[in-house]
Amino acid sequence: MADKLNKKPVNGMKDIMPQEMEIRDYVTSVIKDTYRSYGFTPIDTPAMENIGNLSGKLGGENEKLIFKVMKRGEKLKIKEAETEEEVVDYGLRYDLTVPLCRFYANHANDLSKPFKALQIGSVWRADRPQRGRYRQFTQCDIDIIGDASNMAEIELILATTTTLGKLGFENFEIRINERRILKSMALKAGFTENSFDEVFIILDKMDKIGIDGVHDELVDKGFDEKVVNSYINLFTILEGKSDVTQAIDCLREELSDTLDEDVAKSMKEIALAVDNSKVAKFDLVFDPTLVRGMSYYTGTIFEIAIPEFGGSCGGGGRYDEMIGRFTGGSVPACGFSIGFERIILLLLEQDFKIPTQSKKIAYLIDKKLPYEKYVEVIKEANELRAKGENILVVKMNKNKKFQKEQLTQEGYEEFKEFFAD
User: Fold this and answer.
1) For 320-365, what is each residue's pLDDT tens digit?
2) What's the pTM?
3) Which has the closest alpha carbon to 308: 134, 130, 168, 203?
4) By CB count within 10 A, which of 200, 275, 320, 349 is most buried?
5) Cα distance between residue 213 and residue 209, in whole Å
6) Rg (CA), the chain
């Protein structure tokens, strides 16, 4: 007898049970309906991309996590290959942004300008699985391409927060920063531009190692302690100034020789517009330590912080140079991604119930029921389905009690039994 096949899913990936799938479908419908109301247009892109696109230094650390696809047939010459490049040609997408940029570069002439894209789909990363993080997961992105003004950031923040509000989330935060502010602070302290990436990687650990930890790690990396102290002092000055306008006014004073006035003005305009037109209950806060890992961000960056999760539940920012890698010309672009899997996790932990869900009724059919009566049951079920009810017609099991318990777990509230007599 052949060995049994492995019934477990691949490590870091998961099977989705019916109860969770219903919530996922509901959340997806809320997301799509809300984003469509803001004028975003659904698109889709392939699961695989050319390996050159995925490893073209557009995705930061995610490029180390690509599931690579080997060449096929006659093209695959493993014995003759000396490098990985000779046997790999495609890869599974690790996010939706790189595929979107390729999509726009390929179809720009057929798309409206600016183009507001909505994309929901699976992505894959060879990452270490943990709570709310999987190797296959769903991303949900909205992007505005072709708008260089801060109207793009304002629309993205409002659309995303309105969606979260409709899903029942309150008192969360949208943390906001600007890559050019990060660079301005580093320049003011005395760091050279070629050290920025290393400095920001360490700064990004602030929430884990604290301000003293950031100081010590920068010094351990060989940076001048005077420069490091000057840098840390800027964050100390900003402590307690989470209000965007207050923080920007403070930075204007501290960074008068390195901070572009247009950057400061734009940040204040975003805060004013969002605070005066938001629908959901949330706070927009300035976070000078917010870095976002992707190296492709060029301007405003933002992140969703939901207290119940204790970490980021989505984020995004402006990436004005990324599409140009495909087209050779500059194209302004900005996007925001909801942490779909983490939102689902939180809803499941809260025992979330789908509002205004149609009633679920199970018709249990005795196996001896005559065919003519079975047809009558089907007609009755169809009449209720036409009225919006969810009717399951299924054979009655011997262990009827256990069958009903399982169906109850799947959300069935009412049972109707049909016997031969």
Assistant:
1) 999 999 998 889 999 999 999 999 999 999 999 888 677 889 999 9
2) 0.88
3) 168
4) 200
5) 5
6) 26
